[in-house]
């Protein structure tokens, strides 16, 4: 039978810096209140070299082995440790050996009146110290949100609601959707924007859409969403403004290109086409909020959908489909099919001609958004 993990040891880590710090602070405050006293210690463990890392480990050892001055219990927090992953300080032989020695000491440590909290960024799970902490106590790993994660919008939704309630405020569904759309998968900025909104509304209890529009900024990922949203909204002035902004950023961001912008637009139109078919089949309908829409997606018969992920709407991020829900009304199915053909020809011109890329993209978008004479 495996030994029970010690409730006196907690290891909080991951590349979601905001979540790690928030959770570690919560545990420290809870433990400190439970144990009482004034002898709790915080050891800063953000270091720039192996010497500083060894010094932090030395302070940790000393803190663990120093009894509380007034008796009772003691919490020791090794905070923001950055030498448990693949950093230069972590790779030093002296640090590796000292951490291995510390791991052995912790295995035989008497935890009756001491609790240990370690918070860190991305860690190397293969290392002895990680394995020791993981075996001794409770490990929580927080991964940063990514636009590639299908559940990032769910996590953002929960986080925004929680942050709003914690400040004794409410937020309307329309405002919540716009907030998530502006911030994108960024937990720290989301909490900051909620704080701004709560201060902005003052004594008013509920945050509305106009409040979000008035003071919330868009981050880099959300600005990319904005280009597709302007296309979906069939708003040509906004679409051309967003395109100009994105094209300007390609001059300074090596990860951005005109082809990349085009592929994002293709993805948007494909999502609208697939959603149009789902509406026609009666699998989904207009929803009051994101959670209601997501529940509809879970009931869509998977056997009715293609196996190729490129043409399977359930392979898309649910939030992308939700955002497209009111937009598909602005286009007919024939117009969306035509839009895909326009973007295909735009792709060919971008890669095989010497025409100005901005002009090619602008012409394609004008052609898509402008209603035909027949319409």
Please indicate the count of domains: 3
How does the overall form come out from the CA principal axes? elongated
The SSE string, one letter per element, is EHEHEHHEHEHEHHEHHHHHHHH
Across the major sheet, the strand order is: 2-3-4-1-5
How would you explain this protein's 3D organization?
The chain is of the alpha/beta class and 375 residues long. It folds into three domains: 9-141, Rossmann fold; 152-215, Helicase, Ruva Protein, domain 3 (Orthogonal Bundle), CATH 1.10.8.60; 220-369, Zinc Finger, Delta Prime, domain 3, CATH 1.20.272.10. The chain has 16 helices and seven strands. The strands form two sheets. The protein has a five-stranded parallel β-sheet, sandwiched between helices. A two-stranded parallel ribbon has the order 6-7. α10 packs antiparallel against α11 (236-250) and α15 runs antiparallel to α16 (357-369). The longest helix has 24 residues, at 258-281. It starts with 8 loop residues before the first strand and ends in a 6-residue tail after the last helix.
């Amino acid at each position: 039978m495996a030994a029970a993990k010690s409730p006196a040891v907690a290891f909080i880590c991951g590349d979601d810096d905001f979540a790690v710090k928030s959770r570690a602070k919560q545990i420290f405050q809870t433990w400190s209140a439970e144990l009482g006293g004034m002898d709790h210690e915080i050891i800063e463990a953000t270091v720039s070299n192996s010497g500083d890392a060894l010094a932090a480990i030395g302070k940790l050892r000393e803190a663990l082995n120093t009894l509380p001055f007034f008796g009772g219990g003691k919490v020791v927090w090794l905070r923001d440790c950055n030498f448990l992953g693949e950093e230069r300080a972590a790779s030093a032989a002296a640090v590796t050996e000292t951490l291995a020695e510390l791991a052995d000491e912790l295995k035989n440590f008497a935890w009756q009146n001491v609790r240990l909290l370690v918070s860190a960024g991305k860690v190397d799970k293969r290392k002895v110290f990680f394995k020791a902490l993981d075996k001794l106590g409770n490990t929580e790993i927080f991964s940063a949100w990514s636009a590639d994660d299908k559940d990032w919008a769910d996590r953002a939704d929960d986080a925004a609601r929680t942050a709003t309630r914690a400040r004794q405020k409410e937020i309307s569904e329309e405002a919540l959707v716009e907030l998530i759309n502006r911030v994108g998968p960024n937990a720290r900025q989301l909490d900051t924007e909620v704080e701004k909104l709560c201060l902005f509304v003052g004594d008013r209890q509920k945050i509305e859409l106009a409040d979000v529009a008035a003071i919330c900024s868009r981050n880099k990922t959300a600005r990319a969403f904005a280009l597709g949203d302007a296309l979906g909204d069939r708003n040509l002035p906004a679409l051309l403004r967003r395109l100009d902004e994105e094209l300007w950023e390609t001059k300074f961001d090596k990860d951005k290109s005109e082809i990349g912008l085009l592929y994002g637009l293709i993805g948007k139109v494909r999502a609208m086409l697939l959603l149009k078919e789902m509406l026609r089949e009666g699998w989904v309908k207009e929803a009051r909020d994101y959670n209601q829409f997501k529940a509809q997606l879970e009931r869509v018969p998977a056997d009715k959908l293609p196996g190729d992920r490129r043409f399977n709407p359930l392979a898309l991020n649910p939030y992308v489909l939700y955002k497209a829900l009111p937009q598909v009304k602005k286009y007919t199915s024939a117009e969306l099919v035509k839009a895909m053909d326009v973007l295909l020809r735009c792709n060919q011109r971008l890669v095989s001609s010497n025409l100005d890329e901005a002009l090619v993209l602008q012409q394609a978008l004008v052609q898509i958004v402008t209603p035909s004479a027949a319409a």
